[in-house]
Amino acid sequence: MPERIDTHRRIGIFVLYDENGIVDNYVEVLLKDMLTVLQELIIVVNGSISDVGYQKLRKITHKMYIRRNIGYDGGAYKDVFVEFLSEEELKKWDEVVLFNDTFYGPFFPWKETFEKMEKEMVDYWGLSRFPEGNYFPNGKGIPEHIQAYFLVCRKPLFLSNAWREFWITLEYPKTYQEAIENFEIRFTQYFSGKGYRNMAFMDQGKVNITNSENPTMWCFETLICNHCFPIIKRKVFCLIHLDVAKKTIDYIRDNTGYNINLITGHLERLYRENRIQPLTPFEPEELYLFYKKHKRIFIYGHGIYGKGIARYFEYKNWKYDGFIVTENKENNVNLLVYHRMRFNLNDGIILALGESAFQEVYSVVKKDLDEKQLYYPRVFSS
How far, CA to CA in Å, does 333 sit from each of 205, 301, 304, 358? Predict the structure, then answer.
């Protein structure tokens, strides 16, 4: 076990899920680095784990709990606090760290992150704060809250009656939105309502968030490159962030000691398993071959996906011949309407669309064009 770097007594609870039960190398590095600020680690596996993965984790800690994959992270934490960790056990610790496998890192030592937060007079803290003003797909507003992929809770909080009440009354989320509402959002609202104080690591840097979007999805370059933010969420590696993600990865490679192969190796596995779209910041061979094979390249879609593809092309100094849309309702002179276009066999179209729009468009274009003229990403689902 790595040498401890301070005298604070911390226990960590790590939640891991992989549909094939695989423990990737980035997980091993993340956990070993966390042991520099923890004295004890409990790993909760949601679902199954391979024999190889189990042996990897056993080398890090002997305290493992394998459970049915129900309730997402919140359900896993609930079982630990209600069924396994008694109040007497919790009294041994100064801080409880709750974290999961949805991010890569750390790019900067955990020691530095924890030291910066030590002086803050709060009862719990996280790495990032989700600002008010965004909405769920059903139109329901999302209130401001500390994002729960990484939470550090201090003794006045986790020894309180409110703490035990929170976990006992937590209902196992059945959907991703319920996981956000019932656990992540409720955590902040419930304990803030009881008078407990919170803070995010990103608050210290006074990060200027110019919109209401998720900061780890839309401000990750600023957070990492300018504010020593220690992690990057794996969901940023998608169509809409190609150029910025590539720049950020370059920065991490050139300015930190983190092995970028830990990220690329995991993403490549997800790609092989059809669980991630093939357009990542690591110059996918398929897209490059598609680009080289066609004389003209068009991007079907002018929303966030289409613009993300365009930015990536510009970053790579690749040429594209315009955006195609089904209808040009705004009479934008820079948009090409599909039914007015004439294509030849040397033309290629990238279908950069959301899932519902893709289904509608694909059913039309596949009748007019050869399949080899179409390039479309698989939807990220991990």
Answer: 42, 15, 19, 23
Q: How far apart are CA 99 and CA 147, in angstroms?
A: 10
Could you list the beta-strand ranges (E) of 214-331: 232-233, 296-300, 323-325
Condensed to tens digits (0 to 9), the pLDDT of residues 232-289 reads 998 888 767 777 888 899 999 999 999 999 998 998 888 778 776 545 544 467 788 8
Residue in 25, 76, 17, 73 with CA at minimum distance from that of residue 52: 25
CA distance 334 to 86: 63
Please state, in angstroms and rounded to a whole number, the distance separating the CA atoms of residues 24 and 135.
33
pLDDT, tens digit (0-9, with 9 covering 90-100), for 15-53: 999 999 999 999 999 999 999 999 999 999 999 999 999
Cα radius of gyration (the chain)? 23
Contact predicate 216/223, CB 8 Å: yes
Give all strands (DSSP E) within 242-322, no chain letters: 296-300
Cα three-residue angle 352-245-351, rounded to 5 degrees: 5
